[in-house]
Amino acid sequence: MPASTAAPASRVAPPLPHDPAPPGLGPASQLVSLPLHLLERGSSLAGQLVDVAAGTSGIDPARDRRFSHAAWAANPLYRRTAQAYLAWAEKAYGLVDDLGLDTADHLRARFGAALAVEAAAPTNVFAGNPEAIEATLRTGGQSLIDGYHNFLGDAQRNGGMPSMVDTTPFTVGETVAVTPGAVVFRNDVLELIQYRPTTPEVFERPLFFVPPQINKYYVLDLAPGRSLVEHALARGQQVFMVSWRNPSPAEGHWDLATYVTALSEATDAALAVTDSADLNLCGTCAGGITSAALLGHLSAAGDERVNAVTFLVTVLDWSVPSTVGAMATGPGAAAAMAAAQRRGILAGEDLSRLFAWLRPNDLVWNYWVNNYLLGRAPAAFDVLAWNVDSTNLPAGLHADFMAISEGNLMSQAGGLELLGTKVDLGAVTCDAYVVGGATDHITPWKACYETARLLGGDSRFVLGSQGHVQVLVCPPDNPKARFSSNDELPADPDAWLAGATEQVGSWWEDWADWLAPRAGSLVPAPEGLGGKDPPALEAAPGPYVRR
Fold first, then answer.
1. Is 285 known to be catalytic?
2. Smallest Cα–Cα separation from 281: which of 485, 487, 431, 456?
3. Phi, psi values for residue 375, rounded to 5°
4. Which residues, including other chains, have CB under 8 Å from residue 367's CB and lie 6 or more apart?
């Protein structure tokens, strides 16, 4: 297939957990000032530690959930240990802030500091964890034996990382990804699933989902009652879903052009099945980047097959600071890129580890304590089971994604050249619905907000109250669901937020209401799936998602 080309930019990748690199410390002038900052922070820390030793410190260990056990308040030694750690952690992060680094260097330095600070928590060792000691005494040492077995199991089967979830209750096609449908199209890169309508009438214009290539599609069809696909069907949408093939090193040459070409073929199939002239597109995360590339290519070619588009947790403008964006240009990135090129893929397990280390306390050390010190099995949770069901990223696509982020190519008219056309998202004039997550650590909401402003049509931005995955799996009956909306799109995202109205409930309902008038007329639901060309191939979810 044709190769994609980008404006000149070095192709880099985020550092992998097994290929660590120290965070950049910026210009020499900042290094010169480091001893002074160390002295100032060290003196302040020394004063705090004197107060801790004297028992007069005002630091409250309970402000950190790791120190919620009663012993951290009742036992003087434990209380002082927690206070000393929290004082040191505050100074360590403060030292990074003192250096006056540019944004990217600062984010990389904060990431490096977090790795050290969270690893040093006293709760991560047996003697410093009163809950673990209590469990050992209560179980007669069985918790330690169980923890040792858990450790050996993770060393053998999970690359030495503590397991986050018990995956045994979750089987694709049986307990997750179970919405009835059929595979109606297949090429080397993807399968296309058409779901069986659940209403007597459906909107004539199909709804076409593009999931991320770095995970499997079924986060959007997780389980009954927790499926965005199921919800869209209940609102009368004709739903199609891309299921990407999990590439091996033999497919390492697949690049953005490969994926966009395959996606274009799949949209042709969806239009043929529904006998519709156009469709509504919904791209998620990396699938949103691919969807935007397709839109830009179609716009340049004068192809109007996309009527409206939805972007879920998708960053297209990389000028907004983020840890992921900073890691794409930091030390060690070029080495990681070279390693992916040698192997042909960026392995799914490596990506999972990288995203886990972005939140080391919540996604690594929390499970270290639970699995090994307390001897407990991780809980069974469908979202986490999906999260560890990882997929590989071909080296070609990985390189294109890194070039796009480093050069911020999609924010520039013609910055990205694809399949013989220059991508200009400002020329994409279809209506757009854009969703961000307030606590998203992978695609920060302010970066997602810029996606709405980058497009040339009428855009609506909504902000869910959750993180990167939780904002996707947000059924209307979720009692914690909240989202904010604002009909205006000012240049400053903080101004948007100040003028936004928070609503109780899920953005799913708001989106369905937005989508309905853009979905065409109601027509009788089809009795079967697929068509004469293409016909239904086999029942969903198909073989690609199982590989």
1. yes
2. 431
3. 70, 30
4. 162, 163, 164, 378
**Residue 346 structure tokens:** 């960026």
Contact 45, 106 (CB under 8 A): no
Question: d(Cα 139, Cα 410) in Å, to the nearest integer?
Answer: 57
Check residue 35 and give its pLDDT: 72
CA dihedral 503, 509, 511, 517 (to 10 degrees): -120
Which single residue is written with the structure tokens 């931005």? 461
Half-sphere exposure of 387 (CA within 13 A, CB side): 20
DSSP code, position 10: -
Measuring CA to CA, which residue among 277, 233, 267 is closest to residue 515? Answer: 233
* pTM of the full structure: 0.90
Q: How far apart are CA 169 and CA 296, in angstroms?
A: 41
Give the pairing of strands 416-418 and 421-423. antiparallel
Residue 161 CA to residue 214 CA, distance in Å, equals: 19
CATH number of 181-344+391-546: 3.40.50.1820
106 CB contacts (<8 Å, ≥6 apart)?
A: 96, 97, 99
- pLDDT, residue 10, reads 28
Domain ranges of the chain: 28-137, 181-344+391-546
CB of 542 closer than 8 Å to CB of 193: yes
Model confidence pLDDT, tens digit, residues 179-202 = 999 999 999 999 999 999 999 999
pLDDT (tens digit per residue) in 376-424: 999 999 999 999 999 999 999 999 999 999 899 999 999 999 999 999 9
Q: How far apart are CA 72 and CA 468, in angstroms?
A: 32
Q: What is the distance between the alpha carbons of residues 68 and 75, in angstroms, rounded to a whole number? A: 13
Mean model confidence pLDDT for the chain: 91
* Structure token pair of residue 451: 């996606």
Vertex 247: Cα angle to 246 and 249 (nearest 5)? 150
Binning pLDDT at 50, 70 and 90, where does residue 326 land? confident
Say which residue, 12 or 525, is predicted with more confidence: 525
DSSP states of 142-176: HHHHHHHHHHHHHHHHSTTSPP----TT--BTTTB
Q: What is the average per-residue pLDDT within 125-149?
A: 97
What gap in Å lies between CA 208 and CA 218, rounded to an integer? 14
The tokens of 484 are what? 């904010």
Residue 367: name the closest of 168, 167, 165 by CA: 165
pLDDT in tens, 328-380: 766 666 777 778 888 999 888 888 888 899 899 999 999 999 999 999 999 99
Q: Hey, how many other C-beta atoms are within 10 angstroms of the C-beta on 496?
A: 21
Amino acid (1-letter code) at residue 323: T
The whole-number pLDDT of residue 449 equals 97
| Per-residue b or e along 221-242, where b marks 16 or more CB atoms closer than 10 Å to that residue's CB | bbbeebbbbbbbbebbbbbbbb
- The amino acid at 126: F
Given 285, 430, 448, 474, which residue is catalytic? 285
CA 517 – CA 233 distance, rounded (Å): 15
- Which helix (H) or strand (E) segment holds residue 503: the answer is strand 501-504
